[in-house]
Amino acid sequence: MHDFELVKPASVAEAVAALAAEGAQALSGGQTLLPSMKQRLAAPDRLVSLLDIPEMRGVCHGDRGLAVGGATPHAVVAREAAARYPALAALAGQIGDPAVRSRGTIGGSLANNDPAACYPAAALASGATIVTDRREIAADDYFQGLFTTALDEGEIITTVHFPIPERACYMKFEQPASRFALVGVFVAKYADGVRVAVTGAGEDGVFRWTDAEDALTADFRPEALQGLVVDADGLIGDLHGTPAYRANLIAVLTKRAVAAA
Amino acid sequence: MPKDGGIGASTLRREDIRFLTGKGRYTADINLRGQAFACFLRSDVAHGRIRSIDTSAAEAMPGVLAVMTGADFTEVGGNPTGWLVQSRDGATMKEPKRPVLAHGKVRHVGDAYALVVAETYAQAKDACEAIVAEIEELPAIVDMAAAVADTTNRVHDECADNVVFDWGWIEENRAAVEAAFDAAPHVTTLELVNNRLSPNAMEPRASIGDFDSGTGDYKLYTTSQNPHLTRLLISAFVMGIPENKLTVIAPDVGGGFGSKIYHYGEEAAVLAASKRLDRPVKWVCDRSEAFLSDAHGRDHVTKIQLATDTEGNFLALRTETLANMGAYLSNFATCTPTFLHGTLMAGPYKTPHVYVNVKAVMTNTVPVDAYRGAGRPEATYSLERVIDKAADELGIDKWEIRRRNFINPDQFPYQTPVGLVYDTGNYHATMDKLRELSDIAGFEARAAESAAKGKLRGFGLSTWIEACGIAPSNLVGVLGCRVGLFDAATIRVNATGNISVLVGAHSHGQGHETVFAQLISEKLGVPAASVEIVHGDTSKIPFGMGTYGSRSLAVCGSAMMKAADKIIDKGKKIAAHMLEAAEGDIEFNDGSFSVAGTDKQKSFAEIAFSAYVPHNYPLETLEPGLEETAFYDPANFTYPAGAYGCEVEVDPETGAVDIVRFTCADDFGNVINPMIVAGQVHGGVAQGIGQALLEGVVYNEDGQLLTGSYMDYAMPRADDLPNIDVDHSCVTPCTHNPLGAKGCGEAGAIGTPPAVVNAVIDALRRGGHGQVTHIDMPLTPSRVWHAIHG
To answer: Which residue ranges make up each domain of chain A?
Structure first.
């Protein structure tokens, strides 16, 4: 790891100012960034930690559903979202291990947009709104490809609003080594329709399985998915699973998520 | 002797107090005054010609003390391989030099070609990045079949077809085997891969070189399973430092599994750097570096054929294997696929004709060497898989086909057709015990429960045997081994009766400090707490060969028994003098020397005190002191054996395999500490399940390691493992060592993989997927799903 400066702002405004410097990088738990730095794959001059900003931490309930502060660790979401949005809490409780869940944050995960991360599936399936220091972004507009999002340089996720579904479930099939999602499917049923988001499988990151959404909006039962197949084209193939295998998992996990929702 | 400390007691491990409270002292914990830090620059291409290395910028960087390259080591020797294996045409194997640092060419990703020493580790690492090397990339040789076929592209120029040897075992058997196959009513053929594994000991390797310019002495602290062997290799082959000027210390070592048997270039490099700088030089491997530089294990591609009659009686067996050596020959690399593999292909069966062919192939990958089990897991896996396939083809029960072919208990000693003489065993007993513990009667009901959940349940059986207690020196010498394989122990009874035992074996997780103390406690009738085990420092311990191949108890433990006998003999002489009796009338029992038929006696402590304060002592005929050394060279290998049963549930929709029940019935001979034996089996089974379901080193066609971290290399974790039922109540004691002990360290890693794979294939067959006759390990969900669905 190369030397760097660590800045710990106490407000969003201070954080934005600190990030304006050349070579500055936001640190929101660091569960991806710090290993990259240890391997010398990343060498920011300045890390701006977002964890000491009170307005960015915690889970609360309001008109727009569940509001989760961008710097809220997974373990806190797992605990505090359990009553209002159990599927989201369950997802947070399955990320990594206890150490990762204590440090990693929802904002860090969404800003990084790892194609195998869990939170993007929840945000996209819930039709969440990503609130930043300067604007609001709908989840449908936010995810733009592998490790790519609508965020501008230096833009900070302050809050994520999750509309609360009638029923929902996240099914994750773990990659055996990393225990990231080999495939993860989040199914959320709202009054105006069902949304199905898939992580771990798409070459461009998280995506919605619209055929399944249509079928489930019409009939929210596993049987409604009968005969629906996912095109393996555009799915990830690697050591741990072929595109065809991932396509199968999407169908299987969606069915199981509906059954369990 | 109460069984709280002697043989047969499940004494808690005394070493765990320091390991579990952070008081262990590993190499990385040692910091010497004035030490500098080393960092190695490793190749990022698999195969390339080094055109130039410019170190000037690195040398000018802050804190840099020295930069060394392969050119600095051209005058010293290479790291040798420990066994010379002859090809079946009589040719001696190729032995390309393995330099301390790569010179001329780099041969695998991770091959170290430069070393920076600096005041801090970060400075050394920074300076490594400033070295400018011009490396002309050559086509990588990764696939073994391609390596053999393409003779124009060579890992080493002196190894023309990339084949180190083409070994036949036993060549004289070949014609009879061919004839038996020609006449056989049924032949079962299976092609399989024994997947390459990365050992991943919890503690990465580390070494500190410490040259003392005042005395000219070298000291090497290092993560070794056998410090004397490391010293011998450095002294006699690599650096030429006389043994009496080199001390090798392996302090607490956090696991080895084979990977720390070998001498590595980093050890020689830190010694050389320390001499150049006249300062201690420390190197600690990081985990990413470990994936690229610790010797890997397994990596065989095998075709095995079993000839049977229609009743399933084995008539003949033959195998053809390509064994990956990697880019250099590691110390035991040539022995592992030959004398630890071909000699075990008979298994516990009385197959009359067996022939094994192994070609050792060089590739641009990390060197491959012995890993827990070493050759014997590969043999067992091939054999137990082909037997299951034959049983399915012939419609014979899996238990029955094995029972029909086992060597019977009354046939020992048994000469196998592949060179070994099994001294004793009872394979029917362990398999019967397994059957009893596996609740076979309840299987169908459990399978029905699984089916109700949409799961397929299967049962897999394997039996295993290994040759361990390595090894008779004269025998291995004939086979090409360049060292002896005895072990040694010194028992130093101190003046007040407590005991220091200095042993050649090395403990890096096995619990020797506990078990060896139990042995001495039982033998000399002293409390285990008064016995201290000393290991790991060549300046203290006698020349022993260290720990691997399940040898510590059978070989070093036997040396301890011999030394203890000498202590007792001398104690009797002292007691005879003190008690004014004839030596022949002195008896030794439970720590007391007594005159037979009388109540006259002296305690062990009194005898010890007299030996060191020899006022009333036969000085004219007997030396003072009570310290004895014994070397023990085994008369034969030991042959532990057993039967493993694995029950799985397969999710046909996802291909996920869940091991729901796992049972081991082993014959380890006499057991000293049942708790530690159970722990050894648990660990071995965990590694076996890792190999069967999770682990696998993968290179791409450019020789880049795709599984270079725990993000892609799947180590087994607690929740991957079932409860493991362990039984070792079937005992046929080893007939040729004083303990009757056989060894247990590798059993789990040997017996487990075929049991798991057999179980999955059984589940698929029962579930209507009988077209799937084999899946290569690791049985990842993706592979299992594709096997079912195409």
So the answer is: 5-49, 54-162, 167-260
**Would you call A248 and B698 a contact, using CB atoms and an 8 Å cutoff?**
no
Percent of chain B with pLDDT over 70: 99
Kindly indicate whether the domain formed by A54-162 is annotated with CATH number 3.30.465.10.
Answer: yes
Cβ(B683)–Cβ(B672) below 8 Å: no
Residue A39: list chain B partners with CB under 8 A. Answer: 288
Q: What is the CA radius of gyration of chain B?
A: 27
Q: Is residue A232 less than 8 Å (CB to CB) from chain B? A: no
Contact list in B for residue A252 (CB cut-off 8 A) is 653-654
Of B66, B93, B73, the closest CA to residue B82 belongs to B93
**Alpha-carbon gap: B498 to the closest alpha carbon of chain A (Å):** 46
CATH architecture, domain A5-49:
2-Layer Sandwich (3.30)
| B29 band by pLDDT with thresholds 50, 70 and 90 | very high
Predicted local distance difference test score (pLDDT) of residue B145: 96
- Structural domains of chain B ordered from first start: 16-22+486-632 (3.30.365.10), 31-138+215-255+260-285 (3.90.1170.50), 300-471+636-789 (3.30.365.10)
CA Rg value for chain A? 18
- Give the best residue of A248, A250, A253 to mutate against chain B (max B CB count within 10 A): A248
Tokens representing residue B386 in the block: 């082909």
Chain B residues whose CB is inside 8 A of the A249 CB are 654
What are the start-end ranges of the E strands in A104-216?
129-132, 136-138, 157-162, 167-174, 181-190, 193-199, 207-208
Preferred mutation among A178, A226, A230 to probe B, highest tally of B CBs within 10 A? A178
Question: pLDDT band at B4, cuts 50/70/90?
Answer: low
What is A167-260's CATH topology? Enolase-like; domain 1 (3.30.390)
- pLDDT tens, position by position, B195-227: 999 999 999 999 999 999 999 999 999 999 999
Q: What pairs with residue B319 in β-bridges?
A: B304, B356
Whether residue B413 is preceded by a cis peptide bond, meaning omega within 30 degrees of 0, is yes
Instruction: Sort out which chain A residues have CB atoms less than 8 A from B714's CB and list them.
Output: 176-177
- Write the single-letter amino acid at A16: V
Query: Model pTM greater than 0.90?
Result: yes
Contact assignment for A177 to B711 by CB distance below 8 Å: yes
What's the gap in Å between the CA of B710 and the closest CA on chain A?
A: 6
| Closest chain B residue to A173, measured at CA | B654
